[in-house]
Amino acid sequence: EVLSVTGMKDGQFVTDLSEIDKIMIHYADGTKEEKSVSPKPTSNVEQVKEYGITDLGDVVYTPNMVVKDRAQLLSDVKAKLDTITLESPEVRAITGNVGALYLE
C-alpha cells in the first residue's frame, strides 16, 4: 500500500513539482524506494503535468498541481497595489496605527 509519493530533483526533496527527475514512494510497511521519472511530452489535460515512471511501463505520475499562467493575475494585483500609499492617514485609520507615539 502506497502512503505517499514525494517529488525530488537532483536527490533533494522539492516543492516545485514542475521540474522533478525522481519520486520517492513511501509504503505502509515502512519501506521506500526511488524511481526515475521523465516529463511526458503530452498530457490528456493541458494544465496537468504528467511524468512517465521509468521501468513501470505505462504508469504515469501526476503531481498534485496544475500548471497555470498567472502573469496577468500578478500584473492586475500589482497595478491595484501600486495605487495604495502605505504611509497615509487613511491606512493608519484602518490599521489603528498612530502617526507618532510619545512616551513620557
From TrEMBL:
Coiled-coil residue spans: none
MF annotations from Gene Ontology: metalloendopeptidase activity; zinc ion binding
Matches recorded under Pfam families: Peptidase_M26_C
Superkingdom of origin organism: Bacteria
The Peptidase M26 C-terminal domain, residue ranges: 47-104
InterPro entries to which the protein is assigned, alphabetical: Peptidase_M26_C_dom
Gene Ontology CC annotations of this record: extracellular region
Protein name: Peptidase M26 C-terminal domain-containing protein
